[in-house]
Design a protein that fits this description.
Blueprint (H helix, E strand, L loop, with lengths): L6 H5 L2 E2 L2 E6 L2 E4 L12 H4 L7 H4 L7 H5 L5 E4 L14 H11 L10 H11 L2 H8 L6 H11 L2 E2 L14 E3 L2 E3 L3 E3 L14 H10 L3 E3 L7 H6 L7 E5 L5 H13 L5 E4 L9 H9 L19 H5 L13 H7 L4 E6 L2 H9 L4 E4 L13 H12 L11 E5 L5 H9 L4 E4 L1 H33 L12 E2 L14 H6 L13
Parallel strand pairs: 8-15, 9-10, 10-11, 11-12, 12-13, 13-14, 14-15
Antiparallel strand pairs: 1-2, 2-3, 3-4, 5-16, 6-7
Organism: Hygrophoropsis aurantiaca
Protein name: Glyoxylate dehydrogenase
């Protein structure tokens, strides 16, 4: 970085042939990067010669531009004395959001995880809600993820001394105060200025394990730096086409003390998330690189597609030995859905699997993780004693109650992952919201464990639940009124004007 650069000088470079932008007070020449930007060149050109920080922050880690842009393109710091302060005019939507924020229910009035989702839905910007809540195609699987738990019924035992119940456990050998870990969700700053740090700080305070997402809004090191001594973290990995980038990322995570590697295997291509896609038609400033200079194609595929073009669709079982060679962290495959693949993961010597359909965001009409759990556990029992201390099975998707957690563990899961519910909690109330979500889980676990007659997590067993209706996908699911209240149905294409 050399002499200060005036904002007037930056403004002179506002074209595709010479494009400078300001991010966090620093000036960058992104001209040569325009064709490579995953979200397309138009979104950058919109801020050519200007301060792009406000648009950059929600969907990029702080170090993204410094990491991916060559050093010679880091031009220097902008002269703060030349910056003309622009008074931002609030839109009607933003004014409405501020009013809703001020009118939020007191956090003391939040009594379940559905409450967080309802508040988040009301106060989030429309694009953020569309990205977070969207699922693929007709969104059948996201609804099934929730409904499947309503087809499992408890068979409680009575007259057991449940004056003391203990729901603590170990996950991949790491102590956890809950049989729940925070599953990876992307782009936390779309919903809160502190993004994923809300989760890190709350998890460290309460002994809960956080899985760091590849596509976090905060940088990996920023998240790790926010931990307290002894705090356990896992890392979720989208595998990059450039294996050297992947190797460096994995080994850096291990060096920073991360205790588990969760490789996402159900996303060789991201699903069509139509709520997200439709929101992008409102602002057509972004065009995906692969669609530039083409005709007859849709201009955009939403936030998800824009941030994920690096994911390698060639990832296969032949890559597993390579992953085992580059790290000593236990490796878990996230996104397994069949007994056949579960047995392959076991035979490859991996540490476990997550039965997941990506929160319903990938293959629509894929079965829920909890439904797949029964067949997967039966298959794994053919490989030896169960539970197997060398191989753990996790489930995520649709979990909103401690009763869901207990059902999954009774059927053979080691623990469960919760993503959206914790994300909505910090979108609504920041770190305090996440801590309240933990408390809700604790309160519900204490009550339900007493009522089912289980004093510890180890006492949960298949005999405590009736899952005989789990495979009945129509007609036997009780209505979940709270979930149905917050769920936003898909909409069809809208006419530009009303006739």
């Amino acid at each position: 970085m050399s002499a200060l650069i005036s904002s007037q000088t930056v403004a002179e470079h506002a074209s595709a042939s010479s494009c400078w932008i300001i991010v966090h007070g620093k000036v960058y020449d992104v001209t040569e990067f325009l064709p490579e930007h995953p979200g397309g060149s138009r979104i950058i050109l919109k801020y050519a010669g200007k301060d792009a920080t406000e648009a950059y922050d929600p969907i990029h880690p702080p170090d993204a531009i410094t990491t991916h842009l060559p050093k010679e393109k880091h031009l220097g710091a902008v002269d703060p004395g030349t910056v003309i302060k622009v008074v931002k005019e609030l839109t009607a939507e933003e004014i409405r959001r501020q009013e809703l924020m001020a009118a939020r229910p007191s956090i003391d009035e939040i009594v379940n995880l559905h409450d967080f989702e309802a508040v988040a839905k009301a106060i989030l910007p429309a694009k953020a809600w569309a990205y977070y809540s969207s699922a693929s195609d007709d969104e059948i699987t996201i609804r099934e993820n929730r409904a499947a738990y309503q087809r499992i019924w408890f068979r409680p035992r009575v007259l057991r001394d449940v004056s003391v119940v203990d729901w603590s456990t170990t996950i991949l050998g790491q102590r956890s105060s809950l049989p729940v870990y925070i599953s990876a969700t992307a782009l936390g700053k779309l919903g809160h200025p502190d993004g994923e740090l809300n989760l890190t700080r709350a998890a460290g305070k309460h002994g809960v394990i956080q899985m760091i997402p590849t596509l976090a809004s905060c940088s990996f090191d920023e998240i790790v730096d926010a931990t307290v001594p002894g705090q356990t973290q896992f890392v979720q990995l989208y595998v990059n086409r450039d294996r050297e980038i992947t190797r460096k990322y994995v080994q850096h995570a291990e060096k920073r003390g991360v205790k588990g590697l969760f490789i996402t295997v159900d996303a060789p291509q991201l699903g069509r998330r139509e709520k997200d896609m439709r929101m992008k038609f409102v602002d057509e400033s972004g065009v995906a690189k692969v669609q530039e200079n083409q005709s007859g194609v849709k201009k955009d595929e939403g936030v998800a597609r824009a941030i994920s073009s690096f994911i390698d669709p060639s990832l296969s079982w032949k890559d597993i030995p390579w992953f085992k060679s580059i790290t000593n962290m236990p490796i878990v495959l996230k996104g397994v859905a069949t007994p056949e693949d579960a047995l392959m993961a076991y035979d490859y010597g991996l540490a476990g699997i997550v039965l997941s359909n990506h929160g319903g965001r990938q293959l629509d009409t894929a079965r829920s993780g909890i439904e797949n759990l029964i067949e997967v556990v039966a298959a794994l029992k053919t490989r030896g004693p169960w539970p197997n201390p060398k191989f753990e099975v996790f489930v995520d998707g649709g979990i909103r109650r401690a009763s869901d957690v207990l059902k999954a563990i009774a059927l053979g899961a080691s623990a469960v992952g919760v993503g959206r519910a914790f994300m909505y909690s910090f979108c609504a109330y920041g770190q305090e919201g996440v801590e309240k979500a933990f408390q809700i889980f604790r309160d519900e676990l204490e009550m339900n464990m007493r009522l089912i007659g289980a004093r510890t997590i180890d006492e949960l067993s298949p005999e405590m639940v009736d899952a005989s209706a789990i495979h009945s996908h129509a007609g036997l699911t009780p209505a979940d009124n709270l979930y149905n209240t917050t769920y936003q149905p898909l909409a069809l294409a809208q006419f530009k004007t009303k006739l």
